[in-house]
Specification:
It contains 14 helices and 16 strands. With 402 residues, the chain is α/β, with parallel strands linked by helices. The strands form 3 sheets. It has a 7-stranded mixed beta sheet, sandwiched between helices. The protein has a 7-stranded mixed beta sheet with strand order 9-10-12-11-14-15-16, with helices on both faces. The chain has a two-stranded antiparallel ribbon with strand order 1-8. Helix 2 packs parallel to helix 8, helix 9 packs across helix 10 and helix 11 packs across helix 14. The chain starts with a helix and ends with a strand. The N terminus is likely disordered.
Amino acid sequence: MNFKKEKQQLNKSQILEGSRAIALTIKNIAPAVISAYPITPQTHIVEDLAKFKADGQVDYEYIRAESEFAAASIVLGASATGVRVYSATSSQGLLLMTEVVYNIAGMRLPIVMTCANRAVSAPINIWNDQQDVMTIRDAGWILLFAEDHQEAVNQHIMAYKLAEQLKLPVMVNVDGFILTHSYEPVIIPDTKLIKKYLPNYKPIAGQYLNTENPVTLGSLVTPTHYMEIRQELHNDLINSLEIIKKEFIIFNSKFKIQNSKFNLLKPKINNGLIEYTGSKNPEIILVAIGSVIGTIKDTINKLPNSNNVGILKIKCFRPFPEKEILQILKPAKYIAVLDKSISLGQMGCLASDIKAICQNKIKTKIQSFIVGLGGRDITSKMIIKIIKEIKKSNDKVKFIGK
């Protein structure tokens, strides 16, 4: 697409590929340093960002890395000097970053990264599920999940505000191919509008590397202090739940960007942590994260008894919004959790967390359903099957493939 044409369309709805929408958003946020290694299906994001630099449209440093481990290390080092940074990855690339991902959180660096969710080998599979991010869910990052292009754009802008305010890294997850390579109506806020919400980054003295005020980041810590430091990170993640809700309100008041897609069902509750659609007292609640929510909404919208089924979308998986989730789930008789990942030998990763917070608090039947692994299509027929299956006495983990 012609650059001048794109510039004229900023702040107006346009049809864009998901990767392009994310790249344009990062371009307008204007980080100082970007480093990434291309991996399907994340590649289009970093290709666009590299081209912006090659064409002289941006001032950021774009550093080509020889691996995902190197890319993560580069943005870690750059962030430690007190500048705004960005990276993106997927699947095996995220796993190769694992050591650095933990270091970033432990060093309290406000890094924002996109994960284009993809299955993990073996066998080799380049299509979408969410096994990659679930592998590092305990690393200490805020983990956000987008349902569609507009939510992905909004979450990336919010991510920087949260990261820099809380001194916590944020990962925005978008389903590979389903969002990265599809085209939808989306509004890209321009740089001027973004700066009103997200001003230039000003790191706090003593929290970044400075030759005039030397500090040590990521130092060796003995058993005497390590546990307290990890507890502090845990507590700050828990406390960030309220900040995320507040920032969601502030963001929407500043941007006033509505979802560009037609609203199939109007949410009853919508904040930075969760979204709930349905009646106050549904018989069944379907719980899921990511783009599958669109399929669920479309399916439920066509059911004759749609009032009996509620839809709970988890936007923020870490920290886990226990209080908000429990409030929604209490009235239901049946809870079906749809996971595009699995803790092998246990159950779906989201289902495991839902069951844990509901124990001794809700007597509702909760069942784990595994769907969409390795990019398997999730159809309305499968959603209807889950609604029927949840009412049966068997509560074992079920893989729904057809």
